[in-house]
Design a protein that fits this description.
The complex is a heterodimer of chains A (112) and B (235). In chain A, α2 crosses α5 (81-105). Chain A has helices at residues 4-8, 11-22, 27-37, 46-58, 81-105, and strands at 24-26, 62-69, 72-79. Chain A is an alpha+beta fold. In chain A, strands 1-3-2 form a three-stranded antiparallel sheet. The model of chain A has no long low-confidence stretch (mean pLDDT 85). Chain A has one domain: Winged helix-like DNA-binding domain superfamily/Winged helix DNA-binding domain (Arc Repressor Mutant, subunit A). Chain B has two domains: 5-64; 93-233, no CATH class. Helices cover 77% and strands 0% of the residues of chain B. Chain B contains ten helices and no strands. Chain B has helices at residues 5-17, 23-43, 49-58, 66-89, 96-112, 116-147, 154-162, 168-181, 190-225, 229-233. The model of chain B has no long low-confidence stretch (mean pLDDT 83). Classes of the chains: A alpha+beta (112), B mainly alpha (235). Chains A and B meet through α3, α4, β2 and β3 of A and α2 and α4 of B.
Chain lengths: 112, 235
């Protein structure tokens, strides 16, 4: 398992990107999906996930839907129109970041 | 293996024991714990419900649900402010704008009267006492609600009691401030008096909206904020 600290600043981008590809998701589903996609490399902790979701909701990037599933209520998160726009911005920033890190960490093998 | 109704109720109690008092926050955590417990059971069906629950709770870290509660509170504060401002704005469009201007002019006239500060301090004291009594009544009602295990939403609690601090205590602080500084209006020039009148007018509107308008519209606002509100309250 890699250094979780390195992923910390990217949590919001990860959530937004997941919601952009999956329409609507609930909290637990997000943690499982990330685990699956990264083959267990990244484990989003519950103590970080929900605060991040609530912040994105407060910023108007996410909308909430509630459905009764079995004997309990489930809260689904969905991108708002603003959220879709912000996802594109954040992904662009992420690409930029990855490129810069590449230059810094491994200048010889950089792609440019 | 799926969780039973009784186990779900147990999870609600569990979140409450860990200082999550509001139903909207509880619900999300209960669903998460339930999913996680079911996942744990898939890997190890022999583990008991309590053990699986505690194992799942540990994943939230040493602060437990605290981070989640804090983030939710912040989000709701933002939301409350937005709602408050939406209703305050009404007072700056016709027809309510006329009332606003009348309040402003009255305040402006009052602060020009000699010894106006004494009148204002007395009014503040009266308002503070009234507000304290009202706050006490609401608190009592709230406690009764908690006892009967009624589901209280976070925004509901904010509209009912905390009101983002636009409560009687603020009157009391103002009263103290004016009393201690021996505030004197007569030494101030016209611009200061205009500014004071404007601030007081704004404060009056904010208080009125937070203490009377929002509680009246509570039901509507809660339905708008929580998609599950109707579903839950009708059960």
């Amino acid at each position: 398992m890699g250094n979780q600290k390195l992923y910390k600043g990217s949590l919001q981008t990860i959530i937004l990107k997941l919601l952009a590809t999956n329409d609507k998701m609930y909290g637990y589903e997000i943690t499982q999906k990330v685990k699956e996609l990264t083959k267990g490399e990244l484990k989003i902790t519950e103590g970080a996930l929900y605060p991040a979701l609530h912040k994105l909701e407060a910023d108007g990037l996410l909308n909430v839907e509630v459905a009764k599933v079995g004997n309990r209520l489930r809260k689904y998160y969905k991108l708002t129109e603003n959220g879709t726009k912000e996802t594109a911005n954040k992904l662009e920033e992420m690409q930029e970041f990855l490129k810069t890190m590449q230059h810094l960490v491994n200048p010889k093998f950089s792609l440019e | 293996m799926k969780l039973t109704e009784i186990q779900i109720t147990n999870l609600y109690q569990f979140t409450r024991q860990h200082f999550v008092y509001h139903y909207d926050v509880q619900t999300e955590l209960v669903d998460h714990l339930a999913n996680d417990i079911e996942g744990i059971w898939e890997e190890n069906p022999k583990i008991s419900f309590e053990e699986a629950r505690d194992k799942s709770f540990k994943k939230f870290g040493i602060f437990g649900f605290m981070d989640v509660i804090e983030a939710k509170q912040k989000q709701m504060n933002k939301r409350y402010w937005k709602i408050l401002l939406r209703f305050v704005k009404e007072w700056f469009t016709l027809p309510k704008l006329i009332t606003t201007l009348l309040i402003f002019l009255s305040v402006f006239c009052i602060v020009q009267i000699p010894f106006a500060e004494i009148a204002i301090v007395s009014v503040l004291l009266i308002l503070a006492v009234f507000e304290m009594v009202a706050a006490y009544r609401i608190r009592k009602k709230h406690k009764a609600k908690e006892k009967t295990d009624e589901k209280i939403f976070l925004l509901e609690a904010m509209i009912g009691t905390t009101k983002n601090s636009f409560t009687g205590f603020t009157f009391l602080h103002l009263f103290n401030f004016m009393n201690l500084t021996k505030f004197d209006f007569s030494g101030l020039n016209m611009y200061w008096l205009l500014l004071i009148a404007a601030i007081v007018t704004l404060l009056i509107i904010f208080f009125y909206v937070a203490n009377y308008v929002l509680p009246q519209k509570a039901e509507e606002l809660l339905q708008e904020t929580y998609p599950e509100y109707k579903l839950v309250k009708n059960v």
